[in-house]
Amino acid sequence: MKHFHVLAPALLLAAPGAAQQAQPSPTLEHRMLLRCSAAFALVANRQAAGDAEALRFPPLGVRGKEYFARASARVMDEAHLDRAGIAQALETEARALVQGGGLAAIMPVCLSALEASEK
Questions:
Q1: pTM score of the predicted model
Q2: Is 16 within the bounds of a domain?
């Protein structure tokens, strides 16, 4: 999905407090799929930039992108979101991770979800 590589830079350029309200995901599972997708996009972007903290995690440029695409499609289908709705929901999750400083904390859970999704 095209949003995978543009999500993190777009968040960095957004003005503080300019967060848009995303359509709420109907389930906790959908929110976790979106949160991990956003986390993988952020980490992959930082890995591509050579960020030492992001490089502690396994490479996510390919595996994370695949998870992102499948998870986004699933949430779109199940929650009846259009492309704009899913993009807004992903951006909201990514912004929360960046502003709340929770990216490193969520990564172990998300990496486990990634492993499980590949089985």
A1: 0.79
A2: no
